[in-house]
Amino acid sequence: MAFFDNKRVLPSTKPISKKIVVSVGSGNARQSHQGLKDAREIIQDARDEAFRIKKAAEDEAVKIRQESLEIEKRIAQKEESLEAKIDQLTRLENQIESSRSQVIQKEGEIAKLRTELVDKLSKVSSYTREEAKKLILANLEEELKVEIAKRIKEAEEKIKAESKAIARDIIVNAMIAGATDWVAEYTVTTVKLESEEIKGRIIGKEGRNIRAFELATGVDVELDSDVAGEVRLSSFDPVRREIARLALEWLVKDARIQPTRIEQLVQKAKNQVASDMTEAGRRAAAEVGLYNLPQEALDTLGRLKFRYSYGQNQLIAAVETAKIARKIAEEVGTNAQICATGGLFHDIGKTEMEKEGTHVQLGIELAKKWNFPQKVIDCVAQHHEDEPFSHIESIIVHIADAVSGARPGARHEAVEDYIKRLSDIENIATSYAGVEKAYAIQAGREIRVIVQPEVIDDSGIVKLSHDIKQKLEDELTYPGQITVTVIRETRAVDIAK
Q1: Nearby residues of 478 by Cβ (< 8 Å), 6 or more positions away
Q2: Could you tell me if residue 184 is inside a domain?
Q3: Which interval of the chain is the signal sequence (predicted)?
Q4: Which residues contact 158 (CB under 8 A, 6 or more apart)?
Q5: Are residues 396 and 425 in the same domain?
Q6: Is residue 335 part of a domain?
Q7: Pair 141, 120 in one domain
Q8: What's the rounded Cα separation, in Å, for the pair 440 and 428?
Q9: Among positive and negative, which fits the CA dihedral 45, 46, 49, 54?
Q10: How many domains does the chain have?
């Protein structure tokens, strides 16, 4: 670090004198004039040098002053940090002192209790076993008399407060075994042809018609069907399949099958399907007594008309769930409007097939987008128990959904898939050590597990049933729920001769 040196000697700024001899004559006059000029230049150079030295000294002084200020600032910051640490240490010392005082106080109380216990033991030692037992029980009964009365009073008040809610839960749980008396429809997207000759016209010259149709609709057309006179339309999007079905039926009737006509009829089919979905959503809401819903919600609800799960039409299932939920809500005296809305829109996330996430997560997003009440959003979020139930309305929607999906005839499943599902359930159960046999019964809604009694004890079967239940939930997809029953049986056999 540089400091200002007061002893630094600056060059003299006094004018430099020089003797000039003036001689008579023209030559001497010129020499005198030149000497005067040189003297002025020397004086000017001296002044410039003095100014430069002065400027350098001033700059160095400013720099030293700035460095001094920065040093003072750092010192002040360190002082503040030290003061904060001193305050913190002071607080810690106070806390330690307070804790020390509390420890000393507790030690005094413990010593007092020890003395009292010693005195009591000295008195009891003179009693017989029975006398000491009676004395202890008498003292205990006297001490607990007030506590027992208090507990009884609290239990009575709690029972009174919760009795109504418990009664509702009992009724709701009893209704889970109910069923409705009508069956949801199940359809397959196919188009019937009057003759095999029409297939050639659908294909067109060099396949241009069928390519134009697939490009406009986004579906795959399968002409090589096992059934004569039938065309299958394949796509993961049910709305596209419906548009393709309508357009193909119109093309077959029109008989003018060419790319331009295909585009016209496909656009007409799109408009028709959009109109049908809007009307279907409006009718579904009106059927369960819901009005003044957002138009976007009704349009999205109508898309469920072309959505199926295990062969169950999702719009019909939504209406069915809403009706069951409304009926249960009316029976138990809770908000029927919330239950009906939650039941109608509980699977609305299934319409968002192109987005990532479960249908529950997507349904929550849509419900929030339409500004549905929080209780309705909770019904959507909790109908598969992805979240804990927050109110009785969400429980009712969960039960109504289970009733709609679990009743006989509601869902369709191929025989091969059904057999594989039962086998998977049994294989999971038998994968645990100590399991002797496992049987899937009631169409896969219950699994009976028989264990080896010498390997698994009574407490072990509780853990085994829980482990099997957890593995079924993690590894399998199935409708409804599966009851896991673990049986442990010990037999002793002897023969009398």
Answers
A1: 421, 425, 444, 472
A2: no
A3: none
A4: none
A5: no
A6: yes
A7: no
A8: 11
A9: negative
A10: 4
Helices vs. strands in the chain: H and E counts, helices first: 14, 8
Residue ending a domain, choose from 126, 151, 167: 126
Q: Measured on CA atoms in the order 165, 170, 176, 182, is the torsion positive or negative?
A: negative
d(CA 303, CA 348) in angstroms, rounded, equals 9
Residue with tokens 């590894």, as numbered in its chain: 475
Which DSSP state fits 320?
A: H
CA distance 96 to 104: 12
- Alpha-carbon distances, residue 373 vs 323, 380, 399 (angstroms): 19, 11, 20
Give the number of residues written for the chain: 497
Residue 57 tokens, joined: 């000294």
The radius of gyration computed from the CA coordinates of the chain, to the nearest angstrom, equals 47
Which residue do the tokens 């009398």 mark?
Answer: 496
Tokens of 476: 């399998």
Write out the two tokens for 424. 């998977």
Residue 345 and residue 383 in contact, taking contact as beta carbons nearer than 8 Å = no
Q: Are 349 and 368 in contact (CB under 8 A)?
A: no
C-alpha 41/C-alpha 13 separation (Å) is 14
CB 346 within 8 A of CB 383: yes
Same domain, 425 and 389: no
196-212 residues labelled b (16+ CB within 10 A) or e (exposed):
eebbebbbbeeeebbeb
Residue 455, phi then psi, degrees to nearest 5: -100, -40
What torsion, rounded to 10 degrees, do the Cα atoms 325, 328, 334, 339 define?
Answer: 0
- Token pair, residue 325, equals 């939920």
Q: In the structure encoding, which two tokens stand for residue 6, read together? A: 């007061």
Residues 348 and 453 in one domain: no
Q: What's the domain range around 353?
A: 309-406
| 421-456 pLDDT tens trace | 888 999 999 999 889 999 998 778 889 999 998 888
**39 phi, psi to nearest 5 deg:** -65, -40
What are the 10-residue block averages of pLDDT along the chain, 497 residues in total?
Answer: 42 43 53 78 87 88 89 88 87 87 87 78 66 72 64 70 65 48 47 71 77 83 69 78 84 78 86 87 88 88 79 81 87 87 88 79 89 90 84 88 66 66 90 91 85 85 87 80 87 78
Q: What angle, 0 to 180 degrees and rounded to 10, lies between the N-to-C axes of helices 374-382 and 336-344?
A: 50
Could you tell me the CA-to-CA distances from 490 to 361, 432, 486 in Å, in that order?
48, 19, 14
